Backbone:
């Protein structure tokens, strides 16, 4: 389907976005994008490093209020995506896999255009402008999501990023205003068409579990334990009481540094504490660079322990 929900540029038509330059500096690749708008050009820079599968934004698209008005000045147009390749792939899989469509939330699509610290400041100091950006992004995501749903894409929809509004970044009130208000409508649309909602939210989720339940979330990952998160798997299972399938709660740092014996115990607790129903063993992140020997050994132990402790 291509990147239907490209979160970098407020989902504007692609002809307004161009690659201004691409250069190599040592083991890094630096790509500069130019965005043409009726009120003047915008610029953003992304960098990648050889052997590391992640991307750093080293110059955000929006630096001030004038930049925000520039991106808002670009007219929206949705060119309906050709879904034939998607359905061809689905047919090839023959029901052996469960497809999942990734959707960035409106708030995350907006925050990615800023330096994150500035975005958090603007949520208070420039709130009307932030709300305008989020509402604009929501309207565009809704149109695209509705098109996919009306044409049979699904059944699972991965919605990611609300950890940017969980403690300590934002208050519960701002989480309601920036996440629940908009994501809830997207989730209602998905459920209306018989789909399932899978929310990805790192960090401290104890305080938002009731909000996720109220929005009808079907799955949640990665349910991180302390200190990265604030809830153990058994506690989370008791709280949601089977209404959300919980995916977790093995930390990437443990795959890197725990012993195989420790990994076995972490897997056992994740699966068995509070019951195995509505539980999927899941790491908090995937490796983005060459694996260490310790990671390799722990990954093998993770699989073996999952098979052993996951039996009903």
Residues:
């Amino acid at each position: 389907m291509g990147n239907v929900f490209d979160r970098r540029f407020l989902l504007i038509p692609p002809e307004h976005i161009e690659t201004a330059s691409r250069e190599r500096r040592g083991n890094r690749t630096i790509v500069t994008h130019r965005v043409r708008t009726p009120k003047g050009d915008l610029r953003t820079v992304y960098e990648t490093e050889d052997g590391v599968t992640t991307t750093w934004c080293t110059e955000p698209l929006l630096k001030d209020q004038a930049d925000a008005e520039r991106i808002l000045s670009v007219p929206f147009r949705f060119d309906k995506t050709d879904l034939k390749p998607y359905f061809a792939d689905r047919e090839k899989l023959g029901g052996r896999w469960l497809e999942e469509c990734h959707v960035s939330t409106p708030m995350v699509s907006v925050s990615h255009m800023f330096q994150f610290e500035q975005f958090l400041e603007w949520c208070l100091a420039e709130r009307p402008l932030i709300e305008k950006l989020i509402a604009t992004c929501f309207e565009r995501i809704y149109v695209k999501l509705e098109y996919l749903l009306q044409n049979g894409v699904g059944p699972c929809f991965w919605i990611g990023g609300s950890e940017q509004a969980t403690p300590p970044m934002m208050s519960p009130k701002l989480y309601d205003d920036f996440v629940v208000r908009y994501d809830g409508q997207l989730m209602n649309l998905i459920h209306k068409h018989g789909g399932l909602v899978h929310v990805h939210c790192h960090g401290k989720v104890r305080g938002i579990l009731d909000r996720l339940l109220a929005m009808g979330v079907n799955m949640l990952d990665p349910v991180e334990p302390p200190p990265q998160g604030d809830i153990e798997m058994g506690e989370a299972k008791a709280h949601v009481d089977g209404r959300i399938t919980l995916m977790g709660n093995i930390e990437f740092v443990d795959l890197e540094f725990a012993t195989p014996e420790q990994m076995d115990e972490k897997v056992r607790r994740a699966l068995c504490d509070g019951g195995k129903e509505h539980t999927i063993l899941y790491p908090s992140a995937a490796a983005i660079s060459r694996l260490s020997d310790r990671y390799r050994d722990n990954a093998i132990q993770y699989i073996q322990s999952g098979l052993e402790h996951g039996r009903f």
Notes: The mean pLDDT is 94.
